[in-house]
Amino acid sequence: MVSVAVLGSSGGIGQPLSLLLKLDPRVSSLRLYDLKMSHGIATDLSHMDSNSICEGFNTDEIALALKGAQIVVIPAGVPRKPGMSRDDLFKINAKIIKSLALQIAEHAPEARVLVISNPVNSLVPIVYETLKSVGKFEPGKVMGITTLDIIRSHTFLVDVLGRKAYSVEKLRSAVTVVGGHSGETIVPIFTDQKFYRRLRDRELYDAYVHRVQFGGDEVVKAKDGSGSATLSMAWAGYSFVKQLLNSLHLETGEDVHPIPTFVYLPGLPGGKELQQKLGTSVEFFAAPVKLSKGIVVEVEHDWVDKLNDAEKKLIAKCLPILDKNIKKGLAFSQQTKL
């Protein structure tokens, strides 16, 4: 049984994510933290007839929220609104994430840390740099959640090809997403190239890629100023946590793979090989990884050898943007004191 802490549990992502986690029979303790409402949300969820104990913790109770947590999920921060750039989002959320990382280092140094808050490309490096500065960073335990891009790649492929002809379940193994978690750093790659050829032959490939890369804008526009993707992001976050829970419950020596996540490449087996194959010094990248006991134990890189020419061009466009995003996060963490 596993103790999970959700930092930012009262927000648009935090509430549905907490609901999904409360439903999972493998979660024994669900600990909800936020600046307000967390006690009420925890009480509400605690009335559900599922196995986990659910407790809420407010501003000055973060140490209690984190105590004993094996998985810490961070959806904390403000959502993106119309007219708000990811740079605007960064300035607000970077301070929040650094503060939470320091708390995790002190009160839950052994936890797996899953970053949902945006912009992931810059915030995961902040968590890395903050934990490293206090000697608490373990490469396999810090992961940026890019799962929503993968989920969109499946959904949008079915939209293009037709739901009468295909189900989402059948196409989940046809495409995945690597790179980062914003705009052109989001790179869909086809694990089944026949679907790429079908889109290309029907001149639908470019539109498909654009929709996967900028699908978040659809939600921001449709919500007309009231927020960004929350329900789908909660589902994506839970989908990733579920993989970690699967991994934690396997016998020693077994692993779960491949599941893309945004990780620190130089610190992980296979990470440097991936950098070499991509021809880059970029240190953070979302790639398929192997999980063992809820920890990333290897970054997969064989997929690079199977890229088609269009995907290689997308990767080439992604890398310099991603590098800039990463350096921005590292610079903030190094220069900002809380």
TrEMBL record:
PANTHER family found in the cross-reference section: MALATE AND LACTATE DEHYDROGENASE, MALATE DEHYDROGENASE, PEROXISOMAL
Keywords: NAD, Oxidoreductase, Tricarboxylic acid cycle
Source organism of the structure: Kluyveromyces marxianus (strain DMKU3-1042 / BCC 29191 / NBRC 104275)
Name of the protein in question: Malate dehydrogenase
E.C. no: 1.1.1.37
Keyword Oxidoreductase listed: yes
GO BP terms in the entry: malate metabolic process; tricarboxylic acid cycle
EC top class named in words: oxidoreductase
PROSITE patterns: MDH
Binding site for substrate: R80, R86, N118, R152
Gene Ontology MF terms: L-malate dehydrogenase (NAD+) activity
Similarity comment: family membership: Belongs to the LDH/MDH superfamily. MDH type 1 family.
Active-site residues per Swiss-Prot or TrEMBL entry: H181
NCBIfam families according to UniProt: MDH_euk_gproteo
Record domain Lactate/malate dehydrogenase N-terminal: where: 3-144
